Amino acid sequence: MKKISLFVFLLFACTTGSVHEDKNGSIQIFYNNDNISYLEPCGCRVSPIGGMIRRWNAFKKYPDSTRLFVDSGNLLFKSTTASDFLAPQWEEQAKGVIEAYNLLGADAVGIGETDFALGVDKLKEMLKLAKFSVLSANLVYRDNQKRVFAPYVVVERAGKKIGIFSVMHQSMTVPSELQIIDPIHEAKEAIRELKQKGAVMIIALSHQRYENDVTFIKEVKGIDLLVGANSQSLLQDPDEVNGTLLVQLSNQGQMLGMVEYATKDFPKNRTKFVVDELNAQYDESNLANPMKSLISIVNLKMEEANKKIDQMMWESKVDAKKGFQTFISCQSCHKVQAAFQYKQLHAASFLTLVAKHQDQNLDCVKCHSVGLGKVGGFRTMNEAFIGEEGETIPYDSLREKIRKFVKTDGKSYRENPHQVKTDVPKWIEFLEKQKIKKTFVTVQCESCHGAKPDHPFTASNTATKVMGTTCLQCHTKEQMPAWYDVKGDVKQETLAAAIKQVACPK
Where among 293, 313, 338 does a domain terminate? Predict the structure, then answer.
């Protein structure tokens, strides 16, 4: 197997170069996997890659009549379950992804294990929005053994019938009312029926992980192209096993994958294979891009969805014994440490979200704040600022004021580190003028040292030593690729150096 890590992105094609205009007499099969809810590239990375806007631009370089698009699962959510405070936002985001795939002209999507994060009924309700086929040949209801989704679909491009089916591995996590039956038996049956319906090419959307795909394809004959998922194994060129081409991308919709076939003797003659970063080269198009307005609407819906959380039961009210003091309290005694930290990128972490208009996205906020969803913390942005009398100061009343002094030209503070020294003092001054005595937003003291509700009046007056595992909760492989080697393991020396760089002076 030839594959590279999720973080070393490169371009490989049978002919070097990125996607370009279609030539007559060919069919292009675009593929994706493990999108895990992303509509836009994550703003944490320097020069972020991915996003539906760029994907649409790339697709439209080819005519609809010869372009086919499939996805092998884990499309809608980041994990198999969603916490209560994130569920409303996740639902709106998932609906946005479905609408984006409609705009992309998706043909078929295989179900993955994270797609059930909000439950079977909610998933099926949302999928009513889909204009593409949702497939799974071996996922059934446990009680009656009826299939949950269609097993396969036949589509046609350039006069050629293409059969697409999907299977999951039996080790995958699915809701208790569902059962994953033998993928090998169901795949063989799907292939037999698809060929009876005239399919000249068979595509398998395989949600099984790469190592299981190899075993699977040795048992199942007749598949021309297998699009894998779940292991997120970024293949720089396709593997071929028993005449079946195996492909798979990384995650978050960061990459573009495409296999092109000549229509003559289809699908025997493969003319091109492309794996490319969805980077800035795909920002422009001669056509008006409908993804831009869709993403704006989804972001607004996500903000509104987060307000629903105020109506939910909050099992643990603010507990003085378990709460967070936040950095405004810390700085009153730890002036030297505060002055040091205000020059670090961490101090501008929330301002980065403001600059990128992601300050209401709780998925982003959770790593750019302290205490989100925790006892003594906050649930929504309108609970993130506390005044002198302990009153909540709604973020809605502060947001536009903050944006007036956050000037990064849409770039992150990693790209403009000098801006930290300019904007953070304005941020601190703003909090003082607004008479804010506690704010949970931005990476701060208790993000690293943990909650210190009784500090300095109890035995907890000693700062907890910062462990590397704390940093890695947010500094993941996707956000900090330089911290990881090609196998995806943490470079311990790099991590230690990063901790030393932000360690407070004594």
Answer: 293
H helix intervals, 19-113: 52-59, 87-104
Tokens linked to 97: 């992804």
Q: What is the spatial distance between Cα 407 and Cα 389, in angstroms, rounded to a whole number?
A: 31
Q: Which of 230, 132, 147 is nearest to 189 (CA)?
A: 147
262 in a structural domain: yes
Ranges of the chain with pLDDT below 50: 1-17, 21-23, 312-321
Per-residue CA distances from 240 to 28, 248, 310, 359 (Å):
19, 12, 53, 45
Q: Does the bond joining 183 to the residue before it have cis omega, within 30 degrees of 0?
A: no
Spatial CB neighbours of 124, under 8 Å, sequence gap ≥ 6: none
Three-state DSSP class for residue 165: strand
Number of domains in the chain: 2
d(CA 414, CA 52): 24
Residues 329 and 429 in one domain: yes
Are residue 344 and residue 423 in the same domain, yes or no? yes
Model's pTM, two decimal places? Answer: 0.80
* Residue 22: predicted pLDDT: 42
Question: Is 329 found in the same domain as 289?
Answer: no
- Cis peptide leading into residue 63 (ω within 30°): no
pLDDT tens across 142-188, in order? 999 999 999 999 999 999 999 999 999 999 999 999 999 999 999 99
Counting residues of the chain whose pLDDT is more than 90, the rounded percentage is: 67
The reported pLDDT for the residue numbered 84 is 80
Which CATH number characterizes residue 91's domain? 3.60.21.10
Q: Is there a single domain that holds both residue 262 and residue 374?
A: no
Nearest to 168 by CA among 106, 115, 100, 110: 110
| Structural domain of 135 | 23-293
Q: Which positions ≥6 away from 375 have C-beta within 8 Å?
A: 316, 318, 319, 322, 323
Which residue is associated with the tokens 């304005």?
426
